[in-house]
Known about the structure:
- By secondary structure, chain A is of the alpha/beta class.
- Chain A has 2 domains: about 5-40, no CATH class; about 45-255, 3-Layer(aba) Sandwich (Rossmann fold).
- In chain A, about 45% of the residues lie in helices and about 10% in strands.
- Chain A has helices at about 5-20, 25-30, 45-60, 75-80, 85-100, 125-130, 140-150, 155-170, 185-195, 215-225, 240; strands at about 110-115, 170-180, 200-205, 230-235, 250-255.
- A 5-stranded parallel β-sheet of chain A has the order 3-2-1-4-5, sandwiched between helices.
- In chain A, strand 4 (about 230-235), helix 11 (about 240) and strand 5 (about 250-255) form a beta-alpha-beta unit.
- In chain A, helix 1 crosses helix 2 and helix 5 (about 85-100) packs parallel to helix 8.
- Chain A is globular, with a radius of gyration of 23 Å.
- The first copy, chain A, starts with a helix and ends in a 9-residue tail after the last strand.
Amino acid sequence: MAFSRSSSISFFILALFALFINPTISSRVSSFIQLPVSTVESRPSVASYCEGWRLAVETNNAGSWTVVPSKCVSSLETYYNRGQFDKDYNVVANYALSYAKTIQLAGDGKDAWVFDVDETLLSNLEYYAANGYGSVPYNSKKFNDWVLQGTAPGFDASLKLFKGLKKLGFTIILLTGRDEVQRSITTQNLLDAGYSGWEYLLLRDHKDQGKAAAQYKSERRLEMIKKGYKIHGNTGDQWSDLQGFAVADRSFKVPNPMYFIA
Amino acid sequence: MAFSRSSSISFFILALFALFINPTISSRVSSFIQLPVSTVESRPSVASYCEGWRLAVETNNAGSWTVVPSKCVSSLETYYNRGQFDKDYNVVANYALSYAKTIQLAGDGKDAWVFDVDETLLSNLEYYAANGYGSVPYNSKKFNDWVLQGTAPGFDASLKLFKGLKKLGFTIILLTGRDEVQRSITTQNLLDAGYSGWEYLLLRDHKDQGKAAAQYKSERRLEMIKKGYKIHGNTGDQWSDLQGFAVADRSFKVPNPMYFIA
């Protein structure tokens, strides 16, 4: 194909010139073409806000919140679909496993690691993706129907961590906010997702109804400690999985910007 | 200026074709030109890892760490220079101020808010940018020389939060890991940066030497509580500013991916 090289170069120069002198064009194209820093005033402000919002949620700065801001839904979709979520979870899993390897186990079967279930071992992303990525109010009936399907997959990172900890000799305790009536489907779902060999699966029974998650989970951890377990590590997607009393020696917060549980 | 429009269009089509069929070129240019999602397999893996690493640091999942991974220096540079750091801090400041507005103040002057100083009220970014963004080991002599210059600026977000809290009637307590011998330069630097009207500036004195930050800061908060202060909020860039005992009702972790203090 014949084309004039010099004309093309001229066209490029003209196009670049237009971008540099016209801030309107410049900002309009900046979401597609990343210009050098000095020519881009800021990242698109909504995406940038949503990144800040997500960090505030993950660091527990946001406090109690009910729904994902509607303007951040597409940021969350991108976060999950482009693989950054998996990357973020993987970094946490690696830190947890590195820490676990430094522990001198007593070898009496009492060296324990606690895992939450939903969004820690099992991913409900399919449900949330179909329900606004957490931007619509929680619907317990609808979510319960999804749980009863028992088709939630595991995370690559949590499977690696879970299996790695078992291999190191840790006793695994699963501690979930799910109800005792969901024991059977939860067990089957976990097995189908690739988990096995846990020592306990602790669910809410009648006396736990209505308790805040941090209270219920702290009480259950305390019971385990009273049984002689040493809780070296705890992994959860909610700060209420990790805080309160009878906390683990180290806690690992895995990412979940879709919902908050007090 | 004369140029052949059709030749230029041909050149563009050729160039785009080359990008789409050649993944090597495609990945090499993707850091400059953002291609549509389907043509970019994933974000460049280093940037993606560094984003995960930064989140792990901010959520305290990384535990104790000494230097920023060298491969993440350019990600941090981008984080600061493109404004995402400021955006992230601003989101935290807004959450803190929203929370502060919900508090019913006793009005006896004992409603307190604690601030750390370095990387919370004063930015040492100029120093760190000139010293590898935290990727080189901490040099106490060199950092001390920088502190003694007294030229660290404030953050827009921290100035807004500080002034907002004062206006609401909170008593401001500054609690820093800096040494008592740096009181004068620290006071002057804070005033120059736009802060004024704090009640206490607490620095490490002889009895605090060698104490872990969380221990020292918890002890000082406890002293304030014993003096009758109610610590409604605490703002710091390190988890050791916020955790331990005598903790605030709510703690706000502001971003700092450049260094870790135990």
